[in-house]
Amino acid sequence: MEGSEAFAAAAIAAGCRFYAGYPMTPATELLESMAKLLPQHGGVCVNAESELEAVGMTWGAAAAGARAATGSTGQGLSLMQESIAEMCHARLPVVIFNMARGQGDYYQATRGGSHGDNRLISLAPSSLPEAVSLVRLAFELAEEWRNPVLVLGDYYLAHMSEAVTIGSQKPLAEIPRRDWAVDGSTSGSGHAKLISPVFDAKNYDPAFRGYGWKLESMADHLTAMETSIEPMAEEYGTQDAELVVVAYSTPARYLTYVIRQLRAEGLPIGIIRPITLWPFPAAAVSRAAEHARGLAVYELNAGQMIDDVRLAVLGRSPVFAIGGPSYDGDGFGIAPDLNTDVLATRLRDALNKVRKL
Amino acid sequence: MTEIEVVPTGTQPAQPGHIVADFMPDLIKTGTHQLCAGCGEPIAMRTLLEAVSEVGYRSNAVAIFGIGCYTVFSGGIDVEVVQALHGRAPSVATGIKRVRPQTLVLTVQGDGDMANEGLQEVLHTAARGESVTCVMLNNGVFGETGGHMTATTVIGQRTKNTLDGRDAAQHGYPISVANMIAPLPGVAYVARCAVNNAVAIDRARRSFKRALQLQSEGAGFTFLEILTMCPTGWFVDTNQGPSYLDETIAKTHIPGVLKDGPD
Description:
The structure holds 2 protein chains of 2 kinds. By secondary structure, chain A is α/β, with parallel strands linked by helices. Chain A has helices spanning 3-13, 28-37, 51-63, 74-89, 106-110, 128-145, 155-159, 213-228, 249-264, 282-291, 305-313, 340-356; strands at residues 18-21, 44-47, 68-72, 94-100, 121-123, 149-154, 194-195, 233-236, 243-246, 269-274, 276-278, 294-297, 319-321.
């Protein structure tokens, strides 16, 4: 199955019944797949007139109790940031797909570009089978934590074909009723619901807490997510590695392939691949750093995830970048540097570097 | 010396006194508001809520609020509310209506919210023919910031950032939102009403009911622009608000039903 369709089918299998999006390479095929598949499963796909409207519609659908998602590429998500922040504050469970161009969106995925105290739970698959399971996890985490969850894909994942198994596709389930969701039924009851970024009850409700309480409570919510959500990472060869590479998503897959070959030559290189970008698998990275001479961060940007690696290592090992921005002429995020020869050279150089430290 | 008539307190009054609650529509839980004296928004809100009850949706309505002075009502009315961002209410309404087609869905926005920050949202929602009702409370100023020019401020109107009056050469022309929406296919009802006198309020009530009724029939997009008084933002005396509205705002934003019934 092609990547975008796998993402869409996995979302629908996870109960997603609403998607709103705006076309933009390489997220366009995800919208196409949703437009094709959702109506077949009793869902709704709206071709929104802009990203601002796509995220607004998703906000509404989630507030009304639907499992809802939106998506774009990083530039489109930049437009959505204001609403994403407010959905975090309003504690709405939505899933946001970023079929990114390159890897320039790590900060966006883990810090966002918006106002206020909020975090997205961020998941970064490196293959389609993994994407299918992480999409389901994304909907489950969104529901469990009442917090938006980001699934970070890229041009490769959107367009490659791999064999995947989509979970049992449930027939149209009734939209799950949740006690906080609106459907109009509490209007006129004396206890009408309010879904708001700043308040969690009407001002005449005995449960009403004044302005600021909800925003202040975000601190506890963020701490609870960070300490309770199990960070995920995949490791290969770190146990005896002198050089540990840290990379995520598609580049990590290329690097793992190259490291396998180099290890066959006897070069002690390992790799750790964060799967949850937030919460960041800091403990696993820190553990990997205990025995290594140094950590090399490979990301196709000017250095974003390297901040989290440095925070995990806290100066106990040298941390340096071996990636960098790499773009095709169309700017879609197909990196000329993702080439096994280029990567092998970078890894050999990095190993030599840490051996001299 | 002037004689002062004193209410006799020694005997029971012939008629019992009234309290605020006696006049409160049942969807309003907080009978007082903290908006300025002479504000038109509480009247518009009350009229809207009465219409929701009268069309039979008092237990099946969701309102999406924008951001402005009227936002204080989001917490005081007994209607489910989703608080949206500035300008974004029509999209949130779309998402709710698509998921809950049997629910009456309406937005409450001001002119700054709808005509400035989110003009494309309401136009796209109208053109999509979404069965939602969008309400724009139009007083021609950003009331909450203290009286600044919006996209509907009429020529000559003084605001805090057009102290000598809005001048077309410098500030451009006002947008008549109802007139933009009325010609769009997919639109079932468009009216511009006011709340500055009893006749106008009654017309507004009928327009609200008609729009909500058409929404319940799935006739398409319905839109109401309500001219509201803002004496504070207009820099006029409280009791001058209603006449200022007629003489200034309503000369450009002319009340009337612009479209009634789907194509």
